[in-house]
Specification:
The complex is a heterodimer of chains A (about 160) and B (about 300). Chain A has about 160 residues and is α+β, with helices and mostly antiparallel strands. Chain A has helices spanning about 1-15, 30, 130-135, and strands at about 45, 50-55, 60-65, 70-75, 85-90, 95-100, 110-115, 115-125, 140-150. Chain A is globular, with a radius of gyration of 20 Å. In chain B, strands 2-3 form a two-stranded antiparallel sheet. Chain B is globular and about 80 Å long. The chains are: A alpha+beta (about 160), B mainly alpha (about 300). At the A-B interface, helix 1, strand 3, strand 7 and strand 8 of A face helix 1, helix 2, strand 1, helix 7 and helix 9 of B.
Chain lengths: ~160, ~300
């Protein structure tokens, strides 16, 4: 009887340990510390996403941004994985339209779209506070929270 | 302490530590760094090659949000009647029609139609349970809708939440084919509804521009299934949407340029030309094609 109990406890112990490394990231952009604009005019965009990331990964999100709207893109991850580096890339030309490296790795960016565009948001983490062994082995979540609101009626810059 | 107690204590401690660590949200991140800029650059170089790509699509509520409810009338006759749900017996048919119904739900919510919103929410819940997307539309969500019937914004958010819950459920439970079927049904229905809200062609109308822009969402939807096309359900979904993509591919103005204007740190404006400028003929072709695909889906003729 004692041996069975010991086995049960060891099993619980064994299966509990990997949870530290493999947490569910699905709603991390909602529960993590992505900066959210509390202005009621902003709605959460359904293309907000989270993913598992390691310090050696680069992740790309292909996002459709509708025209005549202001968006806020915010990023969050584990403490040790900051700063987050993100770039906005034109999917047709692979031209880098924006790199947050030029703005000292800011974590939140406001983008107005005059016309509808699909952009690639390329994300990686620099993990400045992680130790070298953690960079290779540690997995965490990366969250991309997108909010949007319509342009004010007067602001129209369309090219047909 | 005897051995039994020791083991219990250790197990409990590990479980508690594990739970706490895996749920941790860190809000104290700004102090100092252990890497210099040179090392950071090295890391940046290393990570350039390794990629995971997520191609994402707007929700039906967002695709329909261009409809100006102040100017346009709610049309019951363009929705898939709730009574049709009895026709769908196979999982594939149920799943693609779930995408249709969740879009009809968004349409009803957009117009603040209380009865229709609740009806479609209930049918969405029913089908979602049947295809085992459990808990995505629960009683609480329906109660919230019932309590917020006078608030259009709340109904819009609830319909959006229903769709997002389904998407997250499929992603979390590794069901890419279910995700593709729902998303395809939702895309087809949103294009069908928005094209049927237009009475006459006017190239300066925002609705036309928006229908043209849906080509971008469709492209992303197709890209999202890359690597899954061997799955018969994904391949079926691709067959459904392919004729629409063929029309978008032929539209003039493909490859619009992109301009970027920086308005201080943390603010950009992206402009340029639209990729898909619909002509009257393109619009009619698109409207007829999507109607044919959609009517086959809802009448279970596929």
């Amino acid at each position: 009887m004692k041996i069975i109990r010991i086995c049960i406890f060891l099993c619980i112990w064994f299966f509990s340990i990997p949870l530290i490394w493999s947490q569910d990231c699905t709603t991390y952009h909602e529960v993590g510390d992505c900066i959210m604009d509390r202005d009621k005019a902003y709605k959460i965009y359904s293309q907000s996403r989270s993913a598992v990331i390691s310090a050696t990964d680069t992740i790309e999100f292909g996002i459709v941004f509708y025209g005549q709207k202001d968006y806020i893109c915010s990023f969050c991850t584990h403490q040790k994985f900051y700063p987050v580096r993100f770039r906005l890339i034109d999917p047709d030309t692979r031209e880098v339209l924006y790199d947050n490296k030029d703005d000292n790795y800011i974590e939140s960016l406001g983008v107005g779209f005059d016309v509808t565009k699909t952009l690639i948001i390329q994300v990686s983490v620099l993990a400045r506070k992680a130790k070298p062994e953690e960079i290779k082995e540690y997995l965490s979540c990366i969250g991309l929270l997108l909010q949007y609101k319509n342009y004010p009626d007067k602001k129209v810059n369309l090219q047909m | 302490m005897n051995l039994k107690r020791l083991i219990r204590f250790l197990s409990l401690s590990v479980c508690i530590c594990t739970t706490v660590l895996s749920c941790k949200s860190d809000r104290t991140r700004r102090a100092g760094s252990e890497f210099g800029d040179d090392e950071t650059e090295e890391i940046i170089e290393k990570i350039e090659d390794i990629k995971k790509v997520y191609n994402l699509c707007p929700s039906p509520a967002e695709m329909l949000s261009i409809i100006d409810v102040r100017e346009m009338k709610f049309k019951t006759d363009i929705l898939n009647p709730v009574s049709n749900s009895d026709k769908y017996m196979e999982v594939r048919s149920m799943t693609v029609n779930l995408g249709i119904y969740v879009t009809d739900l968004a349409y009803a919510a957009l117009f603040g139609r209380r009865e229709e919103t609740i009806d479609y929410l209930e049918i969405v819940q029913d089908i979602a349970e049947k295809i085992r997307i459990t808990g995505t539309v629960d009683k609480q969500l329906i109660e919230r809708a019932k309590n917020n019937v006078d608030y259009i914004d709340s109904l819009f958010n609830i319909s959006n939440e229903a769709f997002i819950n389904m998407i997250f459920f499929c992603e979390k439970n590794d069901r890419p084919s279910t995700l593709m079927l729902i998303s395809s049904g939702a895309f087809i229905e949103s294009l069908y509804l928005s094209s049927n809200m237009i009475e006459a062609f006017d190239s300066t109308d925002n609705m036309f521009r928006h229908i043209g822009d849906q080509g971008e969402a469709l492209e992303n939807l197709i890209k999202s299934s890359e690597g899954e096309s061997a799955d018969p359900n994904v391949s079926y979904a691709l067959e459904l949407i392919r004729p629409l993509m063929n029309i978008y591919d032929q539209i003039e103005g493909k490859g619009g340029i992109t301009s970027v204007k920086k308005e201080g740190a943390g603010k950009l404006v992206i402009g340029g030309k639209s990729k898909n400028n619909l002509s009257g003929a393109d619009f009619i072709k698109l409207k007829e094609t999507v109607a044919s695909i959609r009517n086959n889906i809802i009448s279970n003729n596929n």
